From TrEMBL:
<dbReference type="GO" id="GO:0044375">
    <property type="term" value="P:regulation of peroxisome size"/>
</dbReference>
<dbReference type="GO" id="GO:0005778">
    <property type="term" value="C:peroxisomal membrane"/>
</dbReference>
<keyword id="KW-0576">Peroxisome</keyword>
<protein>
    <recommendedName>
        <fullName>Peroxisomal biogenesis factor 11 family protein</fullName>
    </recommendedName>
</protein>
<feature type="transmembrane region" description="Helical">
    <location>
        <begin position="121"/>
        <end position="143"/>
    </location>
</feature>
<keyword id="KW-0812">Transmembrane</keyword>
<dbReference type="GO" id="GO:0042802">
    <property type="term" value="F:identical protein binding"/>
</dbReference>
<comment type="subunit">
    <text>Homooligomer. Interacts with ARC5 and FIS1B on peroxisomes.</text>
</comment>
<keyword id="KW-0962">Peroxisome biogenesis</keyword>
<comment type="function">
    <text>Involved in peroxisomal proliferation. Promotes peroxisomal duplication, aggregation or elongation without fission.</text>
</comment>
<dbReference type="Pfam" id="PF05648">
    <property type="entry name" value="PEX11"/>
</dbReference>
<dbReference type="InterPro" id="IPR008733">
    <property type="entry name" value="PEX11"/>
</dbReference>
<comment type="similarity">
    <text>Belongs to the peroxin-11 family.</text>
</comment>
<dbReference type="GO" id="GO:0016559">
    <property type="term" value="P:peroxisome fission"/>
</dbReference>
<keyword id="KW-1133">Transmembrane helix</keyword>
<keyword id="KW-0472">Membrane</keyword>
């Protein structure tokens, strides 16, 4: 491993989001391993189940205070158009509900609050999460569409910008598109996980579906947060 990679890993793991993506990887890898060995090696499966539960609870602890992120994002980046501003408000409102009730759910799971509230708190948290993700996904598709339109303008024969400026603008648009595609992948994956809490069903609640969705979300977030 090169020194540059080590330096980037140190920077990545110094971020709260970096630690969260690493522990999320542990959580969903252990879920998949538990499912795979449950029938043949029950003792080993139980160990991985404990790792999954511990990882999930520790992630909730890491995210304490995260509900304030929505306020900060709205203050710093309200959106360039009325449509994007509305989508930002709806998306971040859903996410703030998610984080707020996720904190309470953590307290219920560790025994500080009565455990009987856990199911209701989980439902409200997942509903707010899925509500927010829908609008985040819509906003990202709108912004990618705008990026494609700008890209077509830049490559038009009659465009007046200098060649060097065009190349740099195209590079930025392409980087932004990749990041938004990673965001969409993560949000769709997390939406599936949230739907498993809101309306349990054989597809969303299957260990493989949850495991793959969790890893897609974790690794998409890993890519987006990795130092450039």
């Amino acid at each position: 491993m090169s020194n540059d990679t080590v330096d980037k890993l140190v920077i990545f793991l110094a971020k709260r989001d970096g630690i969260d993506k690493l522990v999320k990887t542990f959580q969903y890898v252990s879920k998949l391993v538990h499912w795979h060995v449950e029938a043949t090696k029950p003792e080993l499966a139980q160990r991985f189940k404990q790792w999954e539960v511990a990882s999930g609870l520790s992630r909730k602890a890491f995210r304490t205070g995260r509900f304030l992120t929505g306020f900060n994002l709205l203050r710093r980046n309200p959106g360039a158009t009325p449509t994007l501003r509305l989508l930002a408000v709806l998306a971040n409102a859903g996410e703030m509900v998610y984080w707020s009730f996720d904190h309470l759910l953590w307290l219920s799971r560790i025994g500080t609050l009565d455990a009987k509230f856990a199911r209701r708190l989980s439902f409200i948290s997942a509903f707010g999460e899925s509500f927010g993700y829908v609008f985040f996904i819509i906003a990202d598709f709108i912004l990618m569409k705008q990026g494609l339109a700008k890209e077509r303008q830049l490559v038009a024969p009659d465009h007046e910008e200098k060649y060097k400026d065009v190349e740099e603008s195209l590079r930025k648009i392409k980087v932004d598109r990749v990041m938004r595609l990673m965001a969409v992948a993560a949000n769709v994956a997390d939406l599936i996980i949230a739907l498993a809490d809101i309306e349990p069903n054989p597809f969303c609640n299957h260990a493989v579906t949850l495991g793959i969705s969790g890893l897609v979300s974790a690794w998409s977030g890993w890519y987006r947060n990795w130092p450039s």
